What we know:
The protein starts with a helix and ends with a helix. The protein contains 11 helices and no strands. α6 runs antiparallel to α7, α9 packs antiparallel against α10 and α9 runs parallel beside α11. It is mainly alpha-helical and 270 residues long. About 7% of the residues have low confidence.
Amino acid sequence: xxxxxxxxxxxxxxxxxxxxxxxxxxxxxxxxxxxxxxxxxxxxxxxxxxxxxxxxxxxxxxxxxxxxxxxxxxxxxxxxxxxxxxxxxxxxxxxxxxxxxxxxxxxxxxxxxxxxxxxxxxxxxxxxxxxxxxxxxxxxxxxxxxxxxxxxxxxxxxxxxxxxxxxxxxxxxxxxxxxxxxxxxxxxxxxxxxxxxxxxxxxxxxxxxxxxxxxxxxxxxxxxxxxxxxxxxxxxxxxxxxxxxxxxxxxxxxxxxxxxxxxxxxxxxx
Length: 270
């Protein structure tokens, strides 16, 4: 089964079309512009899948990366499937290029996002986990090595998910939230130390970003600044300072930081 056929199967197993749009109430023109941009992202994604089926892996990668760039600019409009599918496709293409370290990074990100947002039983979650095992096998790992690695990654995602769920409850137990996120980072570091060939810096950077927001909520902005610097350095070291993901994530942190300060100021005046 080729890449495009795999994602076609997801239409019956997910929340809608392959690139469905989760919209919140907003201005009509913004909705129209977003739909147009996501339609363009869909077209580039489909082109990439087609090129992949023709074994034109490098050309396919260009289209997939362009689709990702378009979607990053429309991040607030996207369902989790969109981001997961992009990482899964990237991993598949790098697997065709026999670049196993980058293939592993793509599948690992797909597994993490799908696990956190779609659940462990979603078809994308299961398929991403299976692909990780395949890549590790190609890197020379036996079954007795692969299962412990997957177990550590699963535990890291569980801690992160627990932190995310606490955040959605509106609790003020920020110490508990931060503790859960730091447990997740420690698991990723343990996996990285044991696996050696696996680089989990990007996952750690995203969790550090979540800790930044929790520290701001806790009103410990001095610690938040140091955490922010750590997250930024990780993004820059893995993706580069001009990469769309780095720029988008930093922009998101700045926007949320401003919103939190505004809400805190309103609370103090009440």
